[in-house]
Amino acid sequence: MLLSVKNLRVSYDNIRALHGVDFQIGEGEIVCIIGANGAGKSTTLRAISRMVPVEEGTEMTFMDQDLLQYSADKVVSKLGISHVPEGRRLFGNLTIMENLKLATFARKDKEKIKEDLERVFDIFPRLEERKPQKSGTLSGGEQQMLAIGRAFMSGRKIMLLDEPSMGLAPLLMLSMFDALKELNKEGATILLVEQNARMALQFAQRGYVLESGSLVLEGSSEELLANPEVKNAYLGG
Amino acid sequence: MVFFFQNLVNALQWGSFYALIALGYSMVYGILMLFNFAHGDIFMVGAYIGFGVATGITALASFGAIALPNWLILVLTIIISMFLTSFVGILVERLGYRPLREAPRASAAITGLMIGIILETGNLALLGAKRVRFPSLIETSTYNIGGVFVTNKKIMIVVVSLLLMFALHQFVRRTKWGMAMRAMAFDYVVVPLMGVPINTIAAMTFAIGSALAAAAGILFGVAYPVLDPYMGIVFGWKAFVAAILGGRGSILGATLAGFLLGFIEIFVAMIFPSTLRDLIAYSIILLILAFRPHGFFGEPYSARLRL
Ligand SMILES: Nc1ncnc2c1ncn2[C@@H]1O[C@H](COP(=O)(O)OP(=O)(O)OP(=O)(O)O)[C@@H](O)[C@H]1O
Ligand SMILES: [Mg+2]
């Protein structure tokens, strides 16, 4: 298992948001977690990135390393877990190029960085055209491309994507998922969380359903798409 | 006209002091959303460290009987003192502010004031109430340029200050650490997701600000050699004003505002009795802020404060 999460519990101000979540992801997989607003999807990703403290009893390992021994920046730079946060959170005062470069802050493999940069520009030619532009002036779709490109540059083994389809028109959404498939072929394992369950399940191989802080269902995408409960609650009947 | 240029030279000198100190205020505020109210006292500590280093080098040189030229002693003093004072800044951040990163901003502000008092009274305890004299390393020579009298010291102060500001600008524009600082100023919560150790960047910000304050302290000591433990207070307040006037975290803004402060003070004093100087100067600045509440280049902090 590449990533294994056991009994993940997180509280905000003494209100529990995750009540002991268990799941695993193998190398090269594309896995999604679907759930409604406030289910705890973002919190799950934040916990893996060590951006929120977890409670006693939580176990998380990544490539057999204890994740809890790593600080947020080391999770990225030492383990290769990259995270596209909710709302993208680009550095609007930096150019596109600077946003991409910043993600390589702790990397020393200059040659590989160059290659990765070329890969990003192959997949998102739009970003190359606009290299010197401030990222704050990009359109929503371009911003999402940059956010994904940035995560790819940080030396990812796994990419955690928080609602990458949010705010994208259907066509753009499709091309974004195509791009993610490309990155997955490059060797990036993908964990995405989505409210848009249909899109997510069509894209991923497997999925989990998160409800008020607990995983209630899991299965292959086909199974989940055919599951009556899922259909009812997340696919509009 | 001659009168004007004469005052311009003085304004540039005072503007240099203010701008150098304001930069440290502004960077820390921009990057960590924190007013480091101890910063004026770090300027004072820098001046004293400069005093110690200069005295030490001079003694060593005469003891070892090596003839170090005075200008070289001054250059060494500036470099070594900037280096040493940066550790004072790192210590202040580590012990004073880092534990309060998530605390209400008022707690951090009070901490700054307390650290300031500790530095002042610590100095008193260490060196006593006697004022110390900064060794005079440069003989003053005065040049008459078309009726305007300019001293070598004033030229040196302005040139060294501008060089340091230029170096800082390049650092922030061109290096990856500078880029990380700019990113933190925009949205520091997500910066760790880029693999950037934000504690290192925070410490570096304090180190750089403190080093610049030390340079200001030594340059001040060169021009006005009498040092006292409370010399940082008024400078700190004025630099703080310049940092706010320049706009949150703006290096260019803090620099310009520092010089503007120097100009306003000197030219107000040129027209009005000098006892009215600060009253009028700071009323003018209040007026500017009323029209530009975010300062010259400032933007309100727009990013959300959590992930
Ligand atoms: N920083 C925070 N402080 C306090 N409560 C929080 C915080 N972040 C999230 N919560 C709460 O934790 C629960 C889970 O939130 P989370 O953001 O993980 O949900 P989500 O599934 O990502 O929702 P959405 O689809 O709306 O993004 C919610 O009840 C939310 O109100
Ligand atoms: Mg969310």
Rg of chain A computed from alpha carbons, rounded to a whole number of angstroms = 17 Å
Query: How would you sum up the major sheet of chain B?
Result: 2 strands, antiparallel
Q: What's the architecture of chain B in CATH terms?
A: Orthogonal Bundle
Number of domains of chain A: 1
Roughly how many Å apart are the termini of chain B? 57 Å
Secondary-structure class of chain A: alpha/beta
What order do the helices and strands of chain A follow? EEEHEEHEHHHHEHEHEEHH
Tell me the CATH superfamily of chain A: P-loop containing nucleotide triphosphate hydrolases
What is the end-to-end distance of chain A? Answer: 34 Å
Q: Which fold name fills CATH's third level, the topology of chain A?
A: Rossmann fold
- Count of domains of chain B: 1
Backbone shape of chain B? globular
Order of helices and strands of chain B: HHHHEEEHHHEHHH
What's the helical proportion of residues of chain A? 25-40%
What is the assembly state of the chains in this entry?
heterodimer
Ligands bound here? adenosine-5'-triphosphate, magnesium ion
CATH class of chain B: Mainly Alpha
- The level-1 CATH class of chain A: Alpha Beta
Largest sheet of chain A: 6 strands, mixed
- How many helical elements of chain B? 10
